[in-house]
Write a structure and sequence with these properties.
This protein is mostly helical and 444 residues long. It is 76% helix and 0% strand. The chain has 26 helices and no strands. Helix 5 packs antiparallel against helix 6, helix 15 packs parallel to helix 17 and helix 17 packs antiparallel against helix 18.
């Protein structure tokens, strides 16, 4: 009809079907042209006007949308749909105050469907203002009205991260699941909240439910694998990652995760194969080099291990575990100067981590003597008052022939931290032959 220059009268529903056809086929200019022709024939149709404005918004013609709504507002000056479209346009033009004023004017009397759209607009408003608590509240209110609202379900898990409201998210999604146990997105969001609270068992279960409901939900498989990895369930994690490899397109990160599973399962050769593939696929993280280096150390391939660990440190210099692994490697190679530098860097990055201090102090005890080790322990105790550090200091005192002071400290520690007493044997196994020490630890 357009080509012939004449358009017969078409019913409004048929016009809308034509518009939908062009929208679905991503032919925006045609959709807008047809919409304009439809409005010319049905120039009092509120629905056609609102849909036209929404199309302008959806395709980021924000100013045009606002001007269109203002021009057509005479059709229904107080129509909340018109006001909402204008509010959304003003928001995207950076007029947040105007947007807030407009939606406040229609919120009180809105029905549930309109209220949902208003709350989604408020969500955008709060996100721009970085008011993540208010954003969470808006999304939660949507889901209490419409638990199956896809947009709200997809957005709330990231909002939960930004607001830190993990417990609220758990309660909300448990409520959603009680009413609809087949909501895979709700299960996934629940898993994310559990994961962030380090409740990895519950997280793994929730992620599993998510992909059992939706077999194409790749993120759920991957996140369950990560949860199982952190739980040290390496065989189960490997199975999960292998399923991802079979069902979806594998990437560099997936090969790295599979490599980690093999490494923890003490299969370093298979781990190295997967780390190598990860690197070939363009993995640029320090993590893959770190795990590769650790596996090479296990196989006593020290030159390659050093190269990998140094690369990991170069890529991510703020990761204390990378410096610690490099320090341990230098220690094994008896390169004490470089080992000392790397240990020092590790404790500087994570002074609250007593385990790193223990390794550093143990290194100093063996290479620089008991005084150097005790000096490091005293510094460590300023950051972390851990039982292991106190017991390590007792070992250093015994090594420095400060026996009386060491025994007094050991007896005090047995009153305070008796469950950690065997740590002295881990550090210095010969103390099992020291009758006085063993008697105190045994409580005799």
């Amino acid at each position: 009809m357009l080509e012939n220059g004449e358009i017969d009268f078409i019913k409004e529903d048929d016009w809308q079907s034509l518009i939908d056809y062009f929208v679905i086929n991503n032919r925006l200019s045609d959709a807008l042209e047809v919409s304009q022709k439809a409005i010319e024939q049905h120039n009092f149709s509120i629905e056609l006007h609102i849909n036209h404005a929404r199309m302008l918004l959806a395709n980021e013609f924000y100013r045009e949308a606002v001007l269109f709504v203002e021009e057509k507002s005479y059709l229904s000056p107080n129509d909340p749909e018109f006001i909402l479209v204008k509010a959304q346009g003003m928001l995207n033009l950076g007029e947040e105050d105007c947007c807030q004023e407009l939606i406040s004017s229609i919120k009180k009397d809105a029905d549930n469907d309109l209220l949902t759209d208003i709350l989604l607009t408020e969500t955008d408003l709060y996100e721009r203002a970085q008011e993540f608590d208010l954003m969470f509240d808006a999304l939660q209110n949507i889901l209490l009205i419409h638990p199956d609202n896809t947009e709200a379900l997809e957005r709330i898990w990231l909002c939960t991260e930004l607001s830190g409201r993990y417990e609220d998210s758990i309660l909300l999604h448990q409520k959603i699941i009680e009413n609809d146990s087949y909501s895979f997105q709700a299960w996934y969001n629940l898993g994310q909240a559990y994961f962030s609270m380090e409740q990895y068992d519950q997280a793994a279960d929730a992620f599993e439910y998510a992909y059992l409901i939706n077999e194409d939900f790749e993120f759920a498989y991957r996140d369950r694998g990560e949860s199982l990895l952190l739980l040290t369930h390496y065989e189960l994690a490997l199975n999960c990652y292998q399923e991802v490899k079979e069902r979806f397109v594998p990437d560099a990160d997936l090969y790295c995760k599979i490599g980690q599973c093999y490494a923890f399962l003490e299969q370093p050769e298979l781990a190295i194969d997967h780390f190598s593939v990860s690197l070939q696929m363009g993995n640029t993280t320090g993590e893959v080099h770190f795990h590769l280096g650790v596996c090479l150390v296990t196989l006593e391939k020290f030159i390659g291990a050093e190269q990998s660990l140094r690369k990991a440190v170069e890529l991510e210099p703020e990761r204390e575990e990378y410096h610690l692994a490099l320090a341990d490697l230098y220690f094994q190679q008896e390169n004490y100067e470089l080992a000392s530098i790397s240990y020092q860097k590790a404790v500087d990055l994570a002074p609250e981590n007593y385990l790193i201090w223990c390794q550093y102090a143990g290194f100093l005890l063996l290479t620089h003597g008991d005084e150097a080790a005790m000096e490091a322990i005293d510094e460590a105790l300023f950051y972390s008052d851990s039982a292991e550090l106190h017991y390590l200091k007792v070992v250093c005192m015994l090594s420095a022939d400060k026996r009386q002071e060491a025994i007094i400290n050991l007896m005090k520690l047995m009153d305070t931290y008796p469950e950690h007493a065997d740590y002295v044997y881990e550090v210095m196994p010969d103390l099992k032959d020291d009758a006085e020490v063993t008697a105190i630890i045994a409580g005799l």
